[in-house]
Write a structure and sequence with these properties.
The chain is an alpha/beta fold and 400 residues long. It has three domains: 111 residues, Beta Barrel (Elongation Factor Tu (Ef-tu), domain 3); 141 residues, Nucleotide-binding domain of ferredoxin-NADP reductase (FNR) module (Rossmann fold, 3-Layer(aba) Sandwich), CATH 3.40.50.80; 90 residues, Roll (Ubiquitin-like (UB roll)). It is 20% helix and 31% strand. The protein is built from eight helices and 20 strands. The strands form five sheets. The protein has a six-stranded antiparallel beta sheet, with helices on one face. It has a five-stranded parallel beta sheet with strand order 11-10-9-12-13, sandwiched between helices. Helix 1 crosses helix 3. The termini are far apart. The structure holds flavin-adenine dinucleotide and FE2/S2 (inorganic) cluster. Flavin-adenine dinucleotide (FAD) binds next to strand 6, strand 7, helix 2 and strand 13.
Length: 400
Amino acid sequence: MAARNLGSTASPASTARLADTSVAEAFLASTVGGEHVAKRHRARFHPLEVAEVRPLTADAVEVTFAVPEALADDYTYLAGQYVALRAELEGHERRRSYSICRPPERGRISVAIKRDLGGVFSTWATSELKAGDTLDVMSPQGTFTSTLDALDGKHVVGIAAGSGITPLMALAHTVLARSATSEFELVYTNRSTLDVMFLEELADLKDRYPSRLAVHHVLSREQRTAPLLSGRIDAPKLETMLDLLIRPETVDEWFLCGPFELVQLARDTLAAKGVDPVHVRYELFTTDADRVEPRHGRHIVVERGEPTVAIEFTLDGQSSTVESPVSANESILNAALRIRPDVPFACAGGVCGTCRARLLEGSVAMTENYALEPDELERGYVLTCQSHPKSDRVVVDYDV
Ligand SMILES: Cc1cc2nc3c(=O)[nH]c(=O)nc-3n(C[C@H](O)[C@H](O)[C@H](O)COP(=O)(O)OP(=O)(O)OC[C@H]3O[C@@H](n4cnc5c(N)ncnc54)[C@H](O)[C@@H]3O)c2cc1C
Ligand code: FES
């Protein structure tokens, strides 16, 4: 890959420019009469062929899957969504989520995977996965998407660290292409220039939309000319960036993506600046919790006469009931997987939201929730991987 300098940090002006037609068309292809076709899909795996594996940095690759026309409707998506990938590695089934890095396009899905030191899936994907391989890919999921109906004159800001840039690439392309007056501003932090994923693409995007895209590269272990853009992003640095560069009062929507610490810092700082959380969307790639490989549908023995909870769930219009011993304190997901192996899940850690269902009856306690928005909770949605029944009977519906 050709070495490239980090771009300028000029703020976007409001000068109108014509949107890029091909990207705009790609997005419009996913809308019908203003309604997004990429509605929530039933989370289902299909084997897809890897069309290309493209190096992005020394430890990150872009993986593009070819989607056959027969499955194209199942793989429509909105910028900001992710897919779960599934592979058998080291004798275990591994499921990991990866955000889609390109604007909506029929027939192709591209994700970017960065090697996590010691990480099972990402190490395998960045070193061994190649064109021609086949991998199980779940239909696109996620709510880290723009809620802006009309983008004209809108100012959208993304804050990302490392691989957190992935959904923001799709969002930036889409926001800029859909309106000739929208603006996208990106704060992107990495250790050094060599770690910057999509460096070329960001520079190209900046060339295409010089007045409407601003990119602020912050490098934690490399000195940049501006001290504000050098070093780790902490609360004082972020506050100064907001005051001097971005000015929150001019921003319509925020997208935060990356590890827990950065996302939490940005949320807290924005809240302290008076930004309404309704306009702040975030996607966590990791939590600060230790990663434990989930045991799916783990075996549970129900002793005779033992108190149990009845868990009823509907999936694909088919209802089933499973008895779960109170003493097992089993999650709804685990219980459901014991009798229906196709119940959707990916991270099993409360992060991705793939296991979302609506609680129709009974009550549950949720251990973690990094995925559901307050309005989803209000409407009765729960993460079944984190939900433990607290009543004799619970009823959930995966289809709504
Ligand atoms: C919605 C969503 C979207 C995502 N999008 C992207 C994306 O676009 N690009 C991307 O690169 N990533 C993305 N991720 C993260 C991705 O899903 C994986 O979590 C990441 O690739 C690491 O997986 P792994 O199997 O390589 O690491 P794992 O094997 O799961 O390990 C993760 C880390 O934990 C450590 N670890 C492993 N086992 C233990 C243990 N027992 N105790 C303590 N530590 C342990 C490892 O050393 C490693 O650092 C996304 C995550 C989510 C939830
Ligand atoms: S499977 Fe990811 S939140 Fe439940």
